[in-house]
Amino acid sequence: MDNRMSGDNAAFRAALVQMRGGRDPQVNLDAAEALIRRAGEGGADYVLTPENTALMELSTKKLFANIQPEEGNLALARFTALARELGIWLHIGSIAVKVSDARAANRSFLIAPQGEIAARYDKIHMFDVDLPGGESYRESKNYQPGEKAVLADLPWGRVGLTTCYDLRFPALYRALAQAGASFLTVPSAFTKQTGEAHWHILLRARAIETGCFVFAAAQGGDHDMGRSTYGHSLIVSPWGEILCEAGTGPEVIFADIDPALVADARARIPSLRHDRDFDAPPALPSARIVEAS
């Protein structure tokens, strides 16, 4: 550890691991470990991996044949040992964890340098969409949605945990910032189609709205289960500037993070202090539309 670990408002190095995961958990874990080690060699103090770090799978049968409960989970054991060996804060964007015979949780794990799990977060919003061109997803078919927003304390400030489709629900990020988050995480497997349209805009908006750093590690490329993801992992400053960006393939990107920029951005635009309660408008009655003749 170097002096970047000296406490709140000290600078630190963040690294994002971008992957191209597939159906073979062992291959995915080997790839993730190699990239995490590369991040550690690059001086990272905090490392974030993407959503679905251990497995990218749409088939219900194949998913449940390849996942385990949290207790005794081999992937999680491997990552906790790796965090301890490297002495880093290792944030596994998510792995599928079996919670019953028919349901899984899309669960994020923040692992401390001692190898202890500091926080868990189950993805709240399920990606149930029908996109143009016949691309369709029903995450709720296999996954049990989370019910709690989660904050955790890092040596440099408080982090709010979210996952992928959560990005489209700004109230979650506002609540995390109001509860003290300086950093927001969005590990993702954004589709190529939606990523091209919205990825950069949404991530920059969440940073600007909250005055937080945003860390978004992603899956990228064409996967062996027939899905294409956007990649372009990003670290965004509290002022909405892109500090670093990946391409579409597996890689590691780095940025040196100055937590003092959070206070600076919020001093310039103090919108978090300007929130007000208000009465929501009543639901409008259905109306018959009459065409003019």
Defining traits:
alpha/beta, 6 helices, 25% helix, Nitrilase/N-carbamoyl-D-aminoacid amidohydrolase, 293 residues, six-stranded mixed beta sheet
Tell me, what is the CATH class?
Alpha Beta
Unreliable runs:
1-6
N-to-C terminal Cα separation, in Å?
A: 76 Å
Number of beta-strand segments: 16
SS element count, helices:
6
* Main β sheet profile: 6 strands, mixed
CATH topology: Nitrilase/N-carbamoyl-D-aminoacid amidohydrolase
Rg from C-alpha positions? 19 Å
CATH architecture classification name: 4-Layer Sandwich
Name the helicity range. Answer: 10-25%
Our count of domains comes out at 1
Helix and strand pattern: EHEHHEEEEEEEHEHEEEEEEH
The largest beta-sheet arranges its strands as 5-4-3-2-1-16
- Looking at CATH, the homologous superfamily is Carbon-nitrogen hydrolase
